[in-house]
Design brief:
The complex is a heterodimer of chains A (about 110) and B (about 110). Helices cover about 0% and strands about 55% of the residues of chain A. Chain A contains no helices and 11 strands. Chain A has strands spanning about 5, 10-15, 20-25, 30-35, 45-50, 55, 65-70, 75-80, 85-95, 100-105, 110-114. In chain A, strands 2, 4, 5, 6, 9, 10 and 11 form a 7-stranded mixed β-sheet that branches. In chain A, strands 1-3-8-7 form a 4-stranded antiparallel β-sheet, with no helix packed on it. Chain A starts with a strand and ends with a strand. In chain B, the strands form 2 sheets. In chain B, strands 2, 4, 5, 9, 10 and 11 form a 6-stranded mixed β-sheet that branches. In chain B, strands 1-3-8-7-6 form a 5-stranded antiparallel β-sheet, with no helix packed on it. In chain B, a hairpin with a 4-residue loop joins strand 7 and strand 8 (about 70-75). Chain B is globular. The chains are: A mainly beta (about 110), B mainly beta (about 110). Chains A and B meet through strand 4, strand 5, strand 9 and strand 10 of A and strand 5, strand 9 and strand 10 of B.
């Protein structure tokens, strides 16, 4: 079984540009979450989508947006890029195990803003 | 404000010894606490989960404790091996693991 796949793996953008990151969850997983991980820090929650609806949003500006498609894949968009947006962007799909949910992370997209 | 703290300095231990990593939190009431392993350039991988009403959980060479009074979790790796070298993250889960709140992680280096 394929794990969570993210594309692209690496990306270099210029300040002010826009970027779209893509994520395919594990087959059968209906929930996708996005995290930003700055070097030396833990991942920070950006969004969660379940069945194409936004279920949670972290403390990120409106320049960040996301959506989920009928096949449960997801895109994260970031507009008007800033140098501080340089980070590893992680996608996680979730499997409900009774009263708790296990998160499976992709390998991430390394975004560098210059 | 809510805060999760892990040892920011790297932990260096000798092969065969027990590694102990600490996760302290304030202003949270997590239902669960999870531990993840992250290798450089890779996404975190789930290791163990412990519930708020559990004191201890074991899995092979791994042991996690959870003290909700002290607001602390300890993560132990016994008989450590060089392959255990990685960054270990604790994450608080309020009941929907789709939103996890992570600590900064502790880098473990196991040497021969």
């Amino acid at each position: 079984d394929a794990g969570v796949t993210q594309s692209p793996t690496h990306l270099i953008k210029t300040r002010g540009q826009q970027v779209t990151l893509r994520c395919s969850p594990i087959s059968g997983h209906k929930s996708v979450s996005w995290y930003q991980q700055v070097l030396g820090q833990g991942p920070q929650f950006i969004f969660q989508y379940y069945e194409k609806e936004e279920r949670g949003r972290g403390n990120f500006p409106d320049r960040f947006s996301a959506r989920q498609f009928p096949n449960y894949s997801s895109e994260l968009n970031v507009n008007a890029l800033l140098l501080g947006d340089s980070a590893l962007y992680l996608c996680a799909s979730s499997l409900v195990r009774g009263e708790w949910t296990e998160a499976f992370f992709g390998q991430g997209t390394r975004l560098t803003v210059v | 404000s809510q805060k999760i703290e892990q040892n920011s300095e790297a932990l260096n231990i000798q092969e065969g010894k027990t590694a102990t990593l600490t996760c302290n939190y304030t202003n949270y009431s997590p239902a669960y606490l999870q531990w993840y392993r992250q290798d450089p350039g890779r996404g975190p991988v789930f290791l163990l989960l412990i519930r708020e009403n559990e004191k201890e959980k074991r899995k092979e060479r791994l042991k996690v404790t959870f003290d909700t009074t002290l607001k602390q979790s300890l993560f132990h790796i016994t008989a450590s091996q060089p392959a255990d070298s990685a960054t270990y993250l604790c994450a608080l889960d309020t009941g929907t693991a789709s939103k996890l709140t992570f600590g900064t992680g502790t880098r473990l280096q196991v040497t021969l």
